[in-house]
Amino acid sequence: MSGKGRGKTEPPPATAAEDPWAKWRSEDTGQKTEDSQLPAAKPPPIDSPPNRGEGLARPPRLDGTLSPLKKTASRKPVPVRSPSHQTRAAAPKPAAPVSVPPLAPAGVRLAKIMSERGLCSRREADVWIERGWVWVDGEPVTTLGARIDPAAEITISREAERDQQRQVTILLHKPVGYVSGQPEPDCQPAVTLISAANQMRQAGDPPFKPWMLRGLAPAGRLDIDSTGLLVLTRDGRIAKQLIGEDSAIEKEYLVRVSGDMIAGGLERLRHGLELDGKPLKPAWVKQLNADQLHFILKEGKKRQIRRMCEQVGLCVIGLKRVRIGKIRLGDLPLGHWRFLRADERF
Fold first, then answer.
1. pLDDT tens-digit series, residues 280-339
2. 269 & 311 share domain
3. If both were cysteines, with which of 5, 81, 308, 313 could 85 make a disulfide (CB 3.0 to 4.6 Å apart)?
4. What is 264-283 written as a DSSP string?
């Protein structure tokens, strides 16, 4: 044995019985096997090799020799599904997650409670809270939107009280030709009448200062063709009391009319009319004489009395407001104004 193959042992050649291909290989290579004396065995079919892993196919050539061996890919077994698998019902889809609404925060907003108790308006409450002027049950609250127990005790600082005293309210006897709110062409707003020269002074009144006009706004409307009591204020509490959605403050008017009232017109003025497709609240209406009516309303739609009278055949030729809540026009001269006194309430 040469040194090149040292250390390696070759397996003995397989016999024809052990290897059915031995005879074929010997003929192809020109070598003889020891069992060449045995009768020729019928080779197995080409497409049925003994090894079922990877088959070897050697189709014969035209000259009788065999073509080189070619490997053919083995077929992978196909899994067979059971009938129960084919008829199995589809698994139910998981239920969609149910959204749970967050719990409502406990308590009521501090600014809302302060407004309901008449301490100030909500806007003023927010300013006071930011400035640290509000205490709840003895503890300072400086967070906007804070919620508290509706029964909690609320106190305000002296700074808040002084700030509230600056929220003046003015009563004006508005003449015809002045608008109560936004100015119209060729018309002046009623606030231009507020000056030191037009003030009706009362005992204990503060002196008029120009800064009092800042933020002064009408709390309610009075038509350009109407006269009487008009309230202008910087106090959010009073504005809410007079023109808030839930306001029940009475407003009293003397109305001069012309024309002939339809039959049952007085009852319709009291209850049964509607404006802009909405029924009006019941009104107190009395006929003083042939051309004068007395109205008491708890609402104030635009040109309400004039439009009500038109529906019963009357035309308003003069309208004067003489009272708002508990405050009367009294002897306030036309075109003059006065401060709302500390002892007066609407």
1. 999 999 999 989 999 999 988 889 999 999 999 999 999 999 999 999 999 999 999 999
2. yes
3. 81
4. THHHHHHTT-EETTEEPPP-
Nearest by Cα to 336 from 177, 181, 199, 213: 199
What does the radius of gyration of the chain's CA atoms come to, in whole angstroms? 53
Report the C-alpha gap between 333 and 232 in whole angstroms.
17
Residue 323 pairs in a beta bridge with 252, 328
Specify whether 223 is catalytic: yes
Look up residue 5 and give its amino acid.
G
Provide the number of structural domains found in the chain.
3
Query: Do the beta carbons of residue 226 and residue 302 sit within 8 Å?
Result: no
- Per-residue pLDDT reduced to its tens digit, 139-148: 999 988 889 8
Are 171 and 245 members of one domain?
yes
Q: Looking at the whole model, is its pTM more than 0.70? A: no
Structural contact between residues 269 and 308, judged by C-beta atoms closer than 8 angstroms: yes
| Distance of alpha carbon 55 from alpha carbon 41, whole angstroms | 20
Q: How far is CA 99 from the centre of its chain?
A: 18
**Are 116 and 149 in the same domain?**
yes
Same domain, yes or no, for 197 and 284? no
Residues 271/264, Cβ–Cβ less than 8 Å: no
Cβ-based neighbours of 200, under 8 Å, separated by 6 or more: 332, 333, 336, 337, 338
Give the domain extent around 112. 108-165
CA distance 20 to 14: 9
Distances (CA, A) of 57 to 41, 46, 316: 18, 6, 119
Evaluate whether residue 5 is within a structural domain.
no
H or E element that contains 218: strand 217-218
Place of tokens 């609250």: 141
Distances (CA, A) of 107 to 121, 142, 246: 19, 16, 22
Backbone angles phi, psi at 129, to 5 degrees: -65, -45
Residue 60 structure tokens: 């014969």
Task: Considering the candidates 28, 137, 223, 260, report the single residue annotated as catalytic.
Answer: 223
d(CA 59, CA 95): 62
